[in-house]
Structures are given as C-alpha cells and as structure tokens.
Design a protein that fits this description.
The chain is an all-alpha fold. It has two domains: 91 residues, RNA polymerase sigma factor, region 2, helix turn helix motif (Rna Polymerase Sigma Factor, Chain: A, Orthogonal Bundle); 81 residues, Winged helix-like DNA-binding domain superfamily/Winged helix DNA-binding domain (Arc Repressor Mutant, subunit A, Orthogonal Bundle), CATH 1.10.10. It contains seven helices and no strands.
Length: 176
C-alpha cells in the first residue's frame, strides 16, 4: 500500500526535475521520442525506489545517475542496431538540396552544433556531464556539485579542463 506522502513527494520531484532531465537526455540522444522514453523509465525507477521504502537523500543526484545509466544502455543497444542497418543499406547514398537560404543556414548551424555536441559526448563522463550542465543547462558550479554529489571546486576544475579538451578536440582557440 502506498503512502500519500510518497505520492506528493514524487510529484514534487517530478515537476521540479522533468524538464532538466529531458533536456539533458535530448542533448545526449538527439531523439525526442527516445528521450521521453528514457526519462519516463528514469522516473519509474525512482518511483520503485520509493515503493521499496528506500530513503533518498538527494533525489536529483539519483535521477541524473539513473538517467546517465539508461543513456549508456541505450547507446549500447543503438550501436548494435546501427551496424545491422548499415549492412542492410548496401552503401546507398541519399542527398538533398535545401530550397531556401534560411533552411541552408539552419542546416549549417545544426551541423556545427552537432559537431560540438558530438565532441562533448565523446569526452570522459567527468567532463561531459559538467560541460553539459554548465553550457546547456546554465547551472552554476555549486548547482552542478549538488547534482553530481561532489564539491564546487572539483566542478570548476572539470569545467576548465573540459573546455580546454573541447577546444583541442574541435581545433579552435575559443568556444565561449
């Protein structure tokens, strides 16, 4: 039998965290419908944790940990599916020409953004997570430290080093 306080607590956490988790997940998987499924599974796991009577001290940190693990699982499954799809495609190429210059600009901007996102996604998780939370979610080092259950100085160092690695990866001197 579920306790009404658990429902209220869960609803409060859901309302507070769902947007951040969804943005983070969409950033990582670049597929809205898949991100919705992964975030939903993340909250289901949190609900099951509460149902078991486990006391959660930092729900946000737990949610991001569950979410990161779900994303890793999704990428593992996707890699094996991608290889199968490539083998079925028989090397056929598909191309298109955009009809207007705005569409072209959007495509170029999207490609540049995608290369940055891909570069961040290829980084070690310590840098990837802090860069995402800082650059995309606009979180302060203190907020990031709370989410990742570490201290703000560690986060600041990871942001600085992560930006340097990102610059090196992209071959640019200044990103921000």
């Amino acid at each position: 039998m579920e306790h009404p306080d658990i429902k209220e607590k869960f609803k409060e956490i859901y309302d507070k965290e769902v947007d951040s988790l969804f943005h983070y997940c969409t950033f990582r998987v670049s597929n809205k419908s898949q991100a919705i499924d992964i975030v939903q599974d993340t909250f289901i796991e949190l609900w099951q944790t509460y149902q078991k009577g486990v006391v959660v001290k930092n729900a946000r940190a737990l949610l991001f940990t569950i979410l990161r693990n779900r994303i890793i699982d999704w990428y593992r499954k996707k890699k094996s599916l991608s290889l199968d799809a490539l083998m079925e495609n028989d090397g056929q190429e598909h191309s298109f020409e955009p009809e207007d210059s705005k569409a072209y600009d959007d495509i170029v901007f999207g490609a540049e953004t995608r290369s940055i996102v891909d570069a961040i996604n290829d980084m070690d998780s310590n840098y990837r997570d802090v860069l995402y939370l800082r650059l995309i979610e606009d979180k302060t080092p203190e907020e990031i430290a709370n989410i990742l259950e570490t201290n703000a100085n560690t986060v600041s160092v990871r942001i600085t080093r992560g930006l340097q690695k990102l610059r090196e990866k992209l071959g640019v001197e200044d990103i921000l």
